[in-house]
Amino acid sequence: MSEPARNLPMGADLYGELLITADDRPTTIRKTIPGLLLAFIASLAAAWLSEHYGVPLILMGLLIGLGLNFVNQDKRLAPGLTFASQTLLRIGIVLIGAKVTLAQFGALGLPAFGALLVIMLSVIAAGILAAKFLKQDMLFGLLAGGATAICGASAALALWSLIGEKRIDQARFTLVLVGIFMMSAMALAFYPAIAGILELSDRQAGFLIGASIHDVAQAIGGGFSYSQAAGEIATIVKLTRVALLAPLVAIFAIWLRAQAKKTGADDVTLGSAVPRFGLPWFIIGFILLVLVNSMFNLPGTLVGYSQDLASWMLLLSVVATAMKSNMSALLTQGWRSFVPVIAATAVAFFMALGAAMLL
């Protein structure tokens, strides 16, 4: 028996192919208010707990969102949660560009930049190979490896926007987020200590930490926990990874489109995940903001406000995504679903350590 007509897909995001049902689609601002308000209140609670107990903000938001997962049964909340998990996350990704400039590539140096590219591509490959080894979807491995290689949650959200809920459901996407934050938290705790035991120089330690820790705040914090100079290097390396978000996601979009053409229009698996008309608008916005910041050197106050806003946008989107996740499906995934993130994290650490030793 078919589902009721009101639950059939009514549309999809042009660049993400995220299915929107008649109940989920935000038709008016008024209908988005209940879900947005709930996500905002949960985000405030996450911010308070993060500030008082030292837990990473996005991780706390994810946990609170999962704890409130039962609210996804209330269809009145669906439009607001959908708006937060899709539109707000894209705006947040655009705003990240205000903190990135083209000069950061030059400050890194060509040898280190080349090593960083090799590390990132190897980490992505590790995620894909681990997924294929466990007979999981290759795109799930791409999501896990890409998020690990680039910048954690922001990259995961950007890649998922391209791959789409139709190919990787919210439960498995949430698993990737959980795995990323688990590995990133462990890295923050152990990588600076490992760098100290190995007696790495500030430049070496900064490169290791910036090239291997997924989350931006934890990568920068880990660098400064080693030394001031290491923190500055870690910041440059990490922000270089963030700057590569746009070109790498663009490459993935082109690859998906090529696969769709290669397999034919009837191949729903890949064809449904492909942007149809050029680059996603949020990637174009990210690139433009980086160029503007590079040419005009945006005021520090403006950059600070934009990053605060970006953090809140990403927090709201993560909270909303966690609330919308199907927990029953999440709990049935098993430990194998974390293997691509674990494998990608291990490759990132050992390759970053090897490259750091040569610097």
Automatic annotation (TrEMBL):
Compartments, record wording: Cell membrane
Pfam assignment, any one: Cons_hypoth698
InterPro entries linked: UPF0324_pro
Gene Ontology terms: cellular component: plasma membrane
Transmembrane segments: 32-49, 55-71, 108-131, 138-163, 175-198, 233-256, 277-296, 302-323, 335-358
Transmembrane listed as a keyword: yes
Main location: membrane
UniProt keyword annotations, A-Z: Cell membrane, Membrane, Transmembrane, Transmembrane helix
Sequence similarity: Belongs to the UPF0324 family.
Name by which UniProt lists this protein: Putative sulfate exporter family transporter
Originating species: Parasphingorhabdus halotolerans
